[in-house]
Amino acid sequence: MSTWKDLIRTPLRSVQAYHVPSHPNAIKLDANESAYGLSRAAHEAVLATVTRELHRYPDATSRALRELLAGQLGVDGSELCFGNGSDELLGLLCAAFGEPRAEGKKKGKPPSILYPSPGFVVYQTAAVSHGMVPLEVPLGPAFEADEAALLEAVAREQPNLVFLATPNNPTGTVWPRSTIAKLLVQHDNVITVVDEAYLAYADARSCIDLALAHPHCLVLQTLSKIGMAGLRVGYLVGRREVVAEVEKVRPPYNLNTLSQRAAEVLLREYQPEILAHAQEIKSERLRLKTGLESLAGVQVFPSDANFFLVRVANATAIYESLAERGVVVRNFDRPGPLAGCLRITVGTPEENNWLLDALRSCLR
Ligand SMILES: Cc1ncc(COP(=O)(O)O)c(C=O)c1O
């Protein structure tokens, strides 16, 4: 007789739940959020949007936000699909495009998702929780984009979906637009999702034009990394016929009323502030890079995002000493390509100074 435990899906048994350590009062450089909170005026504008209609479900189509964002991105409203953060959309993509290929079915090959590794951890959990196989294709030895390895792996594996984060988390790697264009031309039977969560920090332009030109391409963006992580608003951009398939699996009220309204007012009235904060983080990134590189024993990987991946000896001990000194970074130190690695989000100038001082004393 089987027990409830036997009902747990086999691939989930070896997976840990996503753990977010809590360090109240610490300098938080562990989650790639924007270092800058909103101005008082922006906060007040958000508060003014709070509705008395909280006994009603949210607008299932996020109409006002959709119209505004579509105008700002230069797309049609039907070319957008909203998610409760882009995390949710990754799962919805698996739910919508998880059908085993006819050729694979004959060989007993399950549907799969392919992404460069090291990559964003939710790609793996989204795949596994939707009965798909996560396939990782290694980045180069210094975590650089490896076009040949990517194209070869896609040709060999014929995954249902490719998730390509550019800049990539946790490495900061940027994928050249020419590689993405090649992938789209060579593999029009694979859905390529270009994850642009950190685009605001890169000197690259969005691939939205590619998504509008190819039905097998979608762009994923989020408000989380540009100062609005608490709202949980992410969106997909793509051609109407592909977006319509994801809409079929989207929970109708996934974007709550407060988030819809707050996102709308912030994107409508506070774009200059959002852009200015991103610009400040980009200049701080340069200063932080110089500071980190000046510390003996710290290898800094190039990054076009709002964080750096660094390698140090005794990374876990350093992570713990930094936490004792009030700075929390993300520890990736475990056997494999990320051994010895910590990820550090670019903070405000004061936070970065504190981090550099703390790191200097930990390394002594
Ligand atoms: C590459 C990448 N994509 C997507 C996300 C998810 O962002 P959110 O769910 O906050 O929109 C993250 C968050 O860290 C990320 O690093």
Summarize the entry for a quick read.
This protein has helices at residues 10-13, 40-47, 63-73, 85-96, 102-106, 121-129, 147-157, 177-186, 208-213, 240-247, 257-269, 271-293, 315-324, 349-363, and strands spanning 27-28, 80-84, 112-117, 133-138, 161-165, 191-195, 217-222, 233-237, 299-300, 307-311, 327-328, 330-331, 341-345. It is of the alpha/beta class. Bound molecules: pyridoxal-5'-phosphate.
Secondary-structure blueprint of this entry?
Blueprint: H1 10-13, E1 27-28, H2 40-47, H3 63-73, E2 80-84, H4 85-96, H5 102-106, E3 112-117, H6 121-129, E4 133-138, H7 147-157, E5 161-165, H8 177-186, E6 191-195, H9 208-213, E7 217-222, E8 233-237, H10 240-247, H11 257-269, H12 271-293, E9 299-300, E10 307-311, H13 315-324, E11 327-328, E12 330-331, E13 341-345, H14 349-363
Parallel strand pairs: 1-11, 3-4, 3-5, 5-6, 6-7
Antiparallel strand pairs: 2-8, 7-8, 9-10, 10-13, 12-13
Helix pairs in contact: 2-11, 3-11, 4-6, 12-14
The structure holds pyridoxal-5'-phosphate (PLP).
Care to count the β-strands? 13
| Mean pLDDT metric | 96
- Can you summarize the main beta sheet? 7 strands, mixed
Q: Assign the CATH superfamily of the largest domain.
A: Type I PLP-dependent aspartate aminotransferase-like (Major domain)
**What is the CATH class of the largest domain?**
Alpha Beta
**Helical/strand content category:** alpha/beta
Quaternary state reads single chain
- The Rg value, from CA coordinates, equals 21 Å
Q: Please tally the helical runs, counting DSSP H or I stretches of 4 or more residues.
A: 14
Small-molecule binders: pyridoxal-5'-phosphate
